[in-house]
Amino acid sequence: MAALPGLTPGTLPPGTAGLRARVREFLAETPFTARCDSWLTGADPAFSRLLGERGWLGMTLPERYGGHGRSPLERFVVIEELLAAGAPVGAHWIADRQTGPSILAHGTEEQKRRFLPAIARGECFFAIGMSEPDSGSDLASVRTRAEREADGWRLHGTKVWTSGAHLAHAILVLARSAPRSQDRHAGLTQFIVPLPDDRVAIRPIRGLSGGHHFNEVALDGVFVPDGLVLGRPGDGWRQVTAELAYERSGPERLLSTFLLIRLLSGRAADPGARRALGGLTARLWALRQASLAVAGALARGETPELAAALVKDLGTRFEREVIEAAREHAGVEPDPGSPDPLARALAESVVQAPGFTLRGGTNEILRGIVARGLGVR
Ligand SMILES: Cc1cc2nc3c(=O)[nH]c(=O)nc-3n(C[C@H](O)[C@H](O)[C@H](O)COP(=O)(O)OP(=O)(O)OC[C@H]3O[C@@H](n4cnc5c(N)ncnc54)[C@H](O)[C@@H]3O)c2cc1C
Question: What global pTM score does this model have?
Answer without folding.
Answer: 0.96
